[in-house]
## 1
Amino acid sequence: MEENLDKLFDYRALIPGSGRFASIVGIGGGAGRVVDQMRKCCLPDVQLYAFGMNRKEMDELSLCGKYLIGQEGLGSGKDRFLAEYECSKSFPAIESVLRGRLVAMFVVCLGGGTGEGCIRSFLQKAREVGNKAIILVATIPHSSEGAEKRKNALGLLKALEPMADALYTVDYDDSRYAMLTEVYQEADRKIIEFTDSLLGMVLRRCMITFDFNDFRTFLQFPTPSKRIDFFMLTGSLDFLRKEVKDWWKKLPAKYSSADEVAMAVFSIENADWSDDKETTEAMDVVHECFLQLPPDAEGKWGIYSDETLLPHRFRLRVFTKCKR
Ligand SMILES: Nc1nc2c(ncn2[C@@H]2O[C@H](COP(=O)(O)OP(=O)(O)OP(=O)(O)O)[C@@H](O)[C@H]2O)c(=O)[nH]1
Ligand SMILES: [Mg+2]
């Protein structure tokens, strides 16, 4: 009963302009660096934070919201149990960055002591303070970093999934790059794009209504896994028309056909929607995406203006959840 009452949540008092839509929190060295780079996204009403145990790494971040876990500032020494213990002393700071926010998004690069030791406490706190959408973004270490490290990370991720409402992962073994620095850069880019795109669906001015309740419907749409898959295409309408034929083929291999899509959200963007012919053609692109959804799948969409796009260039963002 309580959950039903909560289904249509009246969030309007909280946005816009309250600065309290979302907190994005990077936990550990790598994750702190990713969140630091999100400053350039300029999403309104989103606060960025980093929590880490290494003072030197924390000093290098330009973020205002930086919190050192533990007193020493020397890192966890790859010890997740020490990190977990030290993290318990930071509960007041963790609660203060999460309280009153609709969305809590945590970024963690699995494979290190700080991130792995602390993430569970952050997810628990988000539930306790009543964040309405809890999103976990995690990277999975590359095989070359050690098979044991990777196995532990995958095991931890499984244990964490029930604690979040949605999950987005970047597996370093899926990268086409050979050098780890390039693998990390690619991951940083993907995480920033995903975060900017997902929160932007609600925060940017939409020409039809895509609101926080639509957002939550997508996150909570019942699927066996809480994972969200995402890709983005930018180009002319001719390019998009070609690319959206069999668009589901751009999804990970677990989508063996379009039938595997349980729910999809599409966003179409352009600098100037005043040209009726172009608008109709752009709507046809979205329509084509919908036509490929299986009959039992749910779809939602939004139209957005983005003045940074060049004339006659359009951007399509696609989010999906899988039936398995
Ligand atoms: N995307 C990205 N991944 C990184 C970066 N640096 C490290 N990683 C990955 O993150 C994993 C964890 O490293 P850190 O983030 O340094 O670990 P930590 O959570 O700070 O924990 P400790 O350093 O052990 O206290 C590594 O195994 C790498 O796979 C980075 O700058 N960007
Ligand atoms: Mg570190």
## 2
Amino acid sequence: MAVTLEYERINISRGGRPVLVDIDLVLPAGGLVALTGASGAGKTTLLRITNRLLAPDSGRLLIDGADAANEPGPQLRRRIGYAAQGVGLFPHWTVGDNIAAVPWLNGMERQGRDRLVLEMLDLVELPQSFASRMPAALSGGQASRVGLARALAARPGLLLLDEPFAALDPETRNELADRIEALHKAQGLTTLLVTHDLADALTRATRILVLDGGRLVADATPAALVADPHPAVQALIASPLDQARRLVRLTE
Ligand SMILES: Nc1ncnc2c1ncn2[C@@H]1O[C@H](COP(=O)(O)OP(=O)(O)OP(=O)(O)O)[C@@H](O)[C@H]1O
Ligand SMILES: [Mg+2]
């Protein structure tokens, strides 16, 4: 079941500096929401607050209407699919054990886990034989898919993806983005997708959030965002737009 998220005046400082300032936001169930903004804007911090790896200094996060602070973090995280920035697979575990990490924590027995791993590999379109591989033997794109499979293995209602396309070539990232979009729909998820790439965000998401220096400076549909005059938004849009124009000119 897709999850509803409500952020109420969330503030957090790190190392004495404010990193998120007065974040007020409601994400209804079922949205595919892109979270973008320059490096250091606070994107990862917002994801980490969402799955309680970090507690805000003030403000509340409601998950399906319940205050997230009232549930132990580890328990909460087992219901949330999280693919961390840089994938973060456990290097000494096989791909299969990585994928089944949360179900294992939840006490799922061996046979069930083996079946689940094969199903998740199918979902992310990797060969089932990858279950016995070690993470070091994966390409960047394959590792991203394993990270996605691991995030989906607990059958979450909420999927948090932190730059799943980083360091992938354009074709691979497009394939992975297609896969994420399809899985988002098929699995009935609320998905919060952090991406540096505004072109991805604009073409995939139903809604775009832009963070700038810890403040939410835009919250709009893709079409409305393009018309947004905020300087931080314009700065993000300028380069993909320019690139697209030059490409179109070449084909004319
Ligand atoms: N443990 C920490 N101690 C102090 N400052 C931190 C810590 N973690 C993050 N920060 C700071 O918080 C700010 C936001 O970091 P965050 O990782 O959320 O940015 P981001 O938007 O995800 O950036 P990127 O696009 O580079 O991943 C940055 O200025 C960062 O230096
Ligand atoms: Mg980050």
